[in-house]
Amino acid sequence: MTNIESWTGERLETFVYNENTNEHLHRYALAMQLVRGKRVLDIACGEGYGSALMAGIAASVTGVDIDAATIARAKEKYTGNSITFLTGSVDAIPCADASIDVIISFETIEHHNRHKEMMQEIKRVLAPGGILLISSPDKLNYSEKPGFTNPFHVKELYRAEFETLINTYFTHTLFMGQRSFYGSMIAPITSNQPAAALSVYKGSYEAVSRLEMEPVYIIGLASDDTLPEFNASVLDGAEVLKMQYEAFRIEVTKDAVAVITKEIRSSLSFRLGYFILSPLRLIKHLLHG
Q: What pTM was computed for the model?
């Protein structure tokens, strides 16, 4: 059951459709490549949609969150033999030693300052050869450059700090960057490779899947000489989206003002005031000829 009234704007809920939605769904799309047939822990699972997505292919999924009310709603909303929801914290995970094959922790670490304790707990519950998939905002690009302060974040890490933390506890690591955008993608295609050499995903709160690139437009490049190579590329459409929003906002404002003006002019109080002030308008007209 959705609890819109108590929503703070920080936790992603399934009634929310925005940039944050795409970011989280994309992360869970990556997670789905790791969890098939595995014992999975979704630490700081929130309302549980990600845990439910993974439970469709995992051997088992345990969703853990520190907020008891959120866990209670998750238990009501998502049921099944392969999914369990528990109340717990990142520095006291309610799972047995070496009982988890894959740990998912998205946008968790910045909400507390017990990072060492969190990593120790992750290592404790992770089985030998297990995998951690974890995300964190980069303090430089998330907060400092845009001049943004998230009141729900306790301790954000710079990229180097985050990488150092993970490298301290794991022998092999791989780091990826993520940036949300609304824009255009252009990728090379050939007759024997209709899909781009670039992973693209689509999804909703009910399902996420890989999307084969089906180009709406074909761009040709031709010459009798050697052609340059082109890599897959994207155009970040954030600026266009902002302009679109601004234009929409202006039009909506104009429409709203027009409606309000019409309603005011048709009201009894306006017509009465207009009648009372008629002599003053006549005098003004005569004085200014």
A: 0.73
Widest distance between CA atoms in the chain:
95
Report the C-alpha gap between 164 and 53 in whole angstroms: 30
The pLDDT value recorded for residue 124 is: 97
C-beta separation of 64 from 45 below 8 A:
yes
**Whole-angstrom Cα distance, residue 216 to residue 219?**
10
**For residue 111, which of 155, 71, 174, 145 has the smallest C-alpha distance?**
155
Residue 285, helix vs strand vs coil: helix
Q: Is the dihedral of CA 263, 264, 268, 274 positive or negative?
A: negative
In a domain, residue 142? The reply is: yes
CA atoms within 13 A on the CB side of 171: 3
Is residue 73 a contact partner of residue 9, using CB atoms and an 8 Å limit? no
User: Residue 2 has what pLDDT?
Assistant: 46
Tokens of 226: 């050697």
Domain residue limits at 273 = 238-287
Residues 200-226 as b/e (b if ≥16 CB within 10 A, e otherwise) read bbebebeebeeeebeeeeeeeeeeeee
221, amino acid identity = L
Query: Average pLDDT for consecutive 10-residue bins of the chain (289 residues)?
Result: 50 64 84 94 94 96 95 94 96 97 93 96 95 93 90 93 94 88 75 58 83 73 78 77 70 60 64 62 59
In a domain, 177, yes or no: no
Structure tokens at 82: 């392969």
* CA pair distance 289, 283, nearest whole angstrom: 10
CA torsion, ordered 197, 240, 27, 72, to nearest 10 deg:
-150
Tell me the C-alpha distance between 218 and 118, whole Å. Answer: 49
In this structure, the answer to whether residues 223 and 243 fall within a common structural domain is: no
What does the alpha-carbon distance between residue 2 and residue 22 come to, in Å, rounded to a whole number? Answer: 19
